[in-house]
């Protein structure tokens, strides 16, 4: 996130502080708030975890088995990740991540394994509740 009002000098010994020699309108200086990053990451983690649980319930109730259940999970996971990217981040991924080289594909695949475990748990639970009992 670029903050021209911060007036920080990254070459200063402390990495910050006022720099009266540089123009404060220089857009090459960036300020990154680690607390905001952690808060945003926790919110995305909660949304994706809830999506894994909800999509597992949907797949179990609909009776999806095998690859159709896996396809359901992958479609819903990428849909939710794209919704986060579009509505909350305005497709400006580099403004919300630490590494400026992160791609949209890596963002979409983040937390895939953790969400898949929640998905499988609720998928088998609801499939068993609806079709076996």
From TrEMBL:
Domain of life: Eukaryota
Region (Disordered): 1-29
Coiled-coil intervals, chain numbering: none
Gene Ontology CC terms: endoplasmic reticulum membrane
Keywords annotated in UniProt: Endoplasmic reticulum, Membrane, Transmembrane, Transmembrane helix
Primary localisation category: endoplasmic reticulum
Record localization: Endoplasmic reticulum membrane
Transmembrane segments: 50-76, 116-132
Entries under InterPro entries matching the protein: Emc6, EMC6-like
Signal peptide positions on this chain: none
Family statement drawn from the similarity comment of this UniProt entry: Belongs to the EMC6 family.
Protein name: ER membrane protein complex subunit 6
Origin species: Cyclotella atomus
């Amino acid at each position: 996130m670029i903050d021209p009002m911060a007036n920080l000098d990254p070459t200063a010994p402390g990495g910050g502080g006022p720099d009266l020699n540089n123009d404060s309108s220089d857009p090459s200086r960036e300020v990154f708030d680690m607390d905001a990053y952690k808060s945003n990451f926790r919110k995305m983690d909660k949304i994706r975890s809830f999506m894994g649980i909800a999509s597992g319930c949907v797949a179990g109730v609909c009776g999806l088995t095998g690859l159709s259940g896996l396809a359901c999970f992958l479609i819903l996971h990428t849909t939710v990740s794209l919704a986060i990217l579009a509505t909350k981040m305005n497709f400006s991924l580099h403004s919300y991540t630490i590494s400026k080289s992160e791609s949209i594909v890596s963002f979409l695949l983040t937390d895939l394994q953790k969400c898949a475990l929640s998905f499988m748990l609720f998928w088998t639970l609801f499939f068993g509740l609806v079709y076996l009992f």
